[in-house]
């Protein structure tokens, strides 16, 4: 207890009320961790099947570029109305299906998807499965734009330049 110099008044010590700074920081950290976990779980729950199809083709194109480099041999992608397939060019530069590897087996899109292919600014008619996009051992490839459209009008796509650089096309219908 404190007393004034004259001895007339005294100050009683107060008891601290509320939370300390350390307690507040711990609570904020716990809330932040829970928020991050909830956000990551939410993003896993919302899966866009259209994006999955685009990422599948993107990944297979990257693998095909690596395969062309390893084989030192031109490879190709052919598309038709239902899906796509991979080809190898033989010694006479004739395309043959690249069927010896499970990664490059032909792929058919699920029901309800339509896709379009543009080579050098010209829309390609996808009525017959034959090579349209060529991948060369040096990393170069035929430049193209490819778009996949769902029945609800949403579409996603990729573009590839002649150096083999992949980029996303703007979303449509979202």
Automatic annotation (TrEMBL):
Membrane topology designation: Single-pass membrane protein
Localisation: Cell inner membrane
Top-level taxon of the source organism: Bacteria
Keywords recorded for this protein, A-Z: Cell inner membrane, Cell membrane, Membrane, Methylation, Transmembrane, Transmembrane helix
Membrane-spanning segments: 24-47
BP GO terms, sorted: protein secretion by the type II secretion system
Secretion signal span: none
Predominant cellular place of this UniProt entry's protein: membrane
Domain General secretion pathway GspH, chain residue ranges per copy: 54-162
A single GO cellular-component term on record: type II protein secretion system complex
Family statement: Belongs to the GSP H family.
Protein name: Type II secretion system protein H
Organism for this UniProt entry: Thiothrix unzii
Taxonomic classification: Bacteria, Pseudomonadati, Pseudomonadota, Gammaproteobacteria, Thiotrichales
